[in-house]
Design brief:
Blueprint: E1 2-9, H1 14-17, E2 25-33, E3 39-46, H2 52-60, E4 64-72, E5 76-83, H3 87-93, E6 98-106, E7 109-116, H4 119-129, E8 135-142, H5 151-162, H6 174-181, H7 185-205
Helix pairs in contact: 3-4, 5-7, 6-7
Length: 208
Amino acid sequence: MYIAKVKVAQPTCSLAKATENGKVTMELLEYILLSDDEALFLGRISKVDDLSECFKVIEAHESTKFFQILEKTKTNLDFLAVIKDTTGIKAFEDSYCFVKPPIIVENGCKIYTVYAPDVRQLKMAYEKLKNFARWEVLEVRSLEEKVKLTEKQHYVLKTAYEMGYFDKRRRATLIDIANAINLSKSTVHKHLHEGIQKIVEKYFNGFE
């Protein structure tokens, strides 16, 4: 399984068009494909100031079929929109990739977070994107990559685990581990801390 972030220029979408001046950024929190050409979006605009120019672009654009403000606060504006432009979403979904919201809309582009079973599906989507838009891959990584621990980090973590350091009722201390593997307490602490940090970072990066 792979996760990719792909930026796609979409002037054919009114929501992307409205962000071309760089003053507005949107998050498309959810979407439903109503047909091959139309999608319903639940969107959010943060840092709400004067959005009159943004709304003019959206309402005047030929892709907008429906636009309604749901709620406006001091910091956010939530809206519903039916847009006749599904090219980006369809390029991924028709290539057996899953688009994970939110879709970020800024500077005339949409940034998609996409899950793909294999690199072949991503390449298939890229070929479809070539037919209608400029696009750029911002990041691709495998979700199946193991955490890259050093030999010492792996050894100390494994020993700590086997001695019960991570048990609910801890059965070993840092000194116990240090004595068992003939290292100083500070060295054991260093390898444990750095190893755990790598594991935690790997875990949470998988949910970005």
